[in-house]
Design a protein that fits this description.
This protein has 75 residues and is mainly α. The protein contains 4 helices and no strands.
Length: 75
């Protein structure tokens, strides 16, 4: 198994609301668990949560349901 190479600080640089990031990552991990064929062959050896975090930080996850401009300004 591979460790996650990212920290909370890295997450805050990408998206200021860590709770929104947690929801995005959890939803993607659930989707991977339900349909593992959606992921790259080399990543399948990792746990779904690790794969989701990796995809989040490498911008492979799209999250249009979140208005990030509104989240990042705190309105």
């Amino acid at each position: 198994m591979e460790k996650v190479k990212f920290t909370i600080r890295d997450m805050k640089e990408k998206i200021s609301n860590k709770y929104a990031a947690a929801i995005i990552i959890a939803n993607r991990a659930k989707a991977i668990r339900e349909n593992p064929a959606d992921t790259d062959e080399e990543l399948r050896k990792n746990k779904p949560t690790v794969i989701a975090v990796e995809e989040f930080f490498t911008d492979r996850i799209k999250y249009p349901e979140f208005n990030l401009e509104k989240i990042n300004t705190g309105e």
